[in-house]
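Reopening this ticket.

The earlier resolution said the output was attached, but the attachment link was broken on my side. Pasting everything inline this time so it's all in one place.
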Amino acid sequence: MKKIYKYLIRGVGINNVDMPKESKILSVKCIDGYLYIWAIVDILNENETRSFFVAATGQEVTMFCMWEYLGTVKDDDYIWHVFYQ
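Inline output:
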């Protein structure tokens, strides 16, 4: 059974999130100062750990450039860029 779930991303750097295998990552948004990602998940699949990298504008990202780019979000005066694998 497929559903859309929301997951909290906790901060700058690498964030590991447990979600069902074969989840399709949809988007990233900032709500009330917190970053969230949305994904289509099959709740019958067993979980796996997915990694997300949050970078500030101007931060070194060389080792994460090969990850998938998810999006850029604004949080007050800050701009965050999110990648995942």
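Reporter confirms the inline version is readable. The radius of gyration is 13 Å. The mean pLDDT is 95.
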